[in-house]
Amino acid sequence: MQKKSFAGEIVQIALKFAPLGAALVLWDLDGEGNKETSRLAQKTGATQVFVYHCDCSNREEVCEQADKVRKEVGDVTILINNAGILLGEKFCDVSDADFEKTLRVNFFSQTCKAFLPAMMTCNHGHLVSTASAAGLLGCTGPYYSASKCAVIGMMGAIDSELYHAGRHGVKATVICPYFINTKLAKALMVLCFMLGAGRVLIAPWCCGYC
User: Fold this and answer.
1) I need a labelling partner for 87 at 20 to 30 A (CA). Which of 93, 138, 187, 206 fits?
2) 103-135 tens-digit pLDDT
3) Where are the domains of the chain?
4) What DSSP line would sit under the chain, residue for residue?
5) CATH of domain 83-207
6) Model pTM?
């Protein structure tokens, strides 16, 4: 199989693209964290790294920053949505405000709409969104599961739209991992065992829209 080239692509996020010749556009609400990601990207071979402060759950800010990226860098050709929070409480214990916050960060922060039109125009690009196995089975964290299920449904529908529009050069992938060794996952695992779901084993998923 021929190795895919990413030279000349403009990728939003993803350190793995750093040594592959792509220009990286980093968005984060955490300014210091974003600078550290930029440093790591350059350390691993990235020659073009552009850092932007953005609250992806704020639609106006997303549109504003997307316009800046287009003017200063160009059209993003590979978009990776990876924002997420987990409020590890039982269904009846989560406040309405926290439920809305979970949906706002995990679902409404998907920035596909800001970059997809340009991809469709040139029939070239790739949308990638990180969901969760919890969005497939609803195994724990009802509000978290609901937000990730929404991501899976949206990406499937986008893929269908692209296919029927004849935009076969634009791909859509949703990644549904099981527990990964992060602070978020540790909170989810604690909640999972509290609810008696520790016996559930789910293999990593990648829904095949790509």
Assistant:
1) 206
2) 999 999 999 999 999 999 999 999 999 898 888
3) 83-207
4) -PPPP-TT-EEES-GGGGGGT-EEEEEES-HHHHHHHHHHHHHTT-S-EEEEE--TT-HHHHHHHHHHHHHHT---SEEEE---------GGGS-HHHHHHHHHHHTTT--HHHHHHHHHHHT-EEEEEE--THHHH--S-HHHHHHHHHHHHHHHHHHHHHHHTT-TTEEEEEEE----SSHHHHHHHHHHHHTT-TT-----EEES--
5) 3.40.50.720
6) 0.79
Please give the C-alpha separations between residue 25 and each of 100, 121, 177, in angstroms, as whole numbers.
Answer: 28, 21, 24
Lookup: tokens for 160:
């269908």
For residue 138, the Cα-to-chain-centroid distance in whole angstroms is 19
Q: Given the residues 143, 144, 178, 209, select the one marked as catalytic.
A: 144
Q: Rounded to a whole number, what is the largest CA-CA distance in the chain?
A: 52
Q: How many residues does the chain have?
A: 210
Q: Is 144 a catalytic residue?
A: yes
Amino acid (one-letter) located at 37: T
Residue type, 26: L
Q: Give the separation between CA 119 and CA 101, rounded to whole angstroms.
A: 29
